Amino acid sequence: MRPTMVAGNWKMNGLSADAVHLTQAILSAGLEQLRPEVVLFPPFTLLHAVSQEAKGTALRWGGQNLFWEANGAYTGEISGAMLRDMGCRYVLIGHSERRQIFAESDDLVAHKVKAALTSGLIPVVCVGESAAEREQGTTEQVLQRQVEAILPLLNRESNQPNLIIAYEPIWAIGTGLSASPEQAQTVHAFIRNLIAGYSSQLAKKIILLYGGSVKGNNAAALFNQDDIDGALVGGASLIAGEFIQICRAAE
Ligand code: PEP
């Protein structure tokens, strides 16, 4: 059985008191003792608050983005070294909001993935098609392009994958319209198969998360699918009770 993970992407939400409250709620539910790794992705400004609450526990945290240089004249940017300094183990890269609003291309995503790996972070790389691409029947083409951009960065020398992929259909993000378990499974199997073409060993072990309107009441059915190893949760990760329910469904 592959390891599983449930990650919460808080996006641009929350102030210090919210971060303390949410992290404490998760810890008091004993979630960090569950088999799936529970990871929080707060905004940069809340990484310190989360780390103060979660240090010494099995709960992990990460950044929602990074810049590829380690330091220098890049006003407003945050580097992998800075995230490591905040105790981050993970970093989200290529979230559809970054691809769409900030025009992040596949090349740029790959560049960031490389920087994350160099900094000793585990990238959680988001991929996914838009509603129009699905309607046009180009879902597989889009995913192939996005996955192939990062495939060469998977380390074939190791039998432990150095990155995680989150399949997040854009039409399912924040819409309340999750992909059905079967739809998600079909795409996850497609992605795993693409990776198998590169390394069958890594394909078996890589963690493939599903993201897009995961809630307490649909998580278990998604987690029951063969190729879904966990979830990247947006909106529901801001509601302690809902996030706790999702984590328990992954047990
Ligand atoms: C996300 O933004 O990564 C996400 C999956 O959002 P939501 O769960 O709100 O659809």
Automatic annotation (TrEMBL):
Localization per record: Cytoplasm
Top EC class, one word: isomerase
CC per GO annotation: cytosol
Active site: 95 (electrophile), 168 (proton acceptor)
Pfam families reported for this sequence: TIM
Principal location class: cytoplasm
Organism domain of life: Bacteria
Annotated GO biological process: gluconeogenesis; glyceraldehyde-3-phosphate biosynthetic process; glycerol catabolic process; glycolytic process
Reaction(s) this enzyme catalyzes, per UniProt: D-glyceraldehyde 3-phosphate = dihydroxyacetone phosphate
Subunit structure comment from the entry: Homodimer.
Name of the protein in question: Triosephosphate isomerase
Species name: Acidithiobacillus marinus
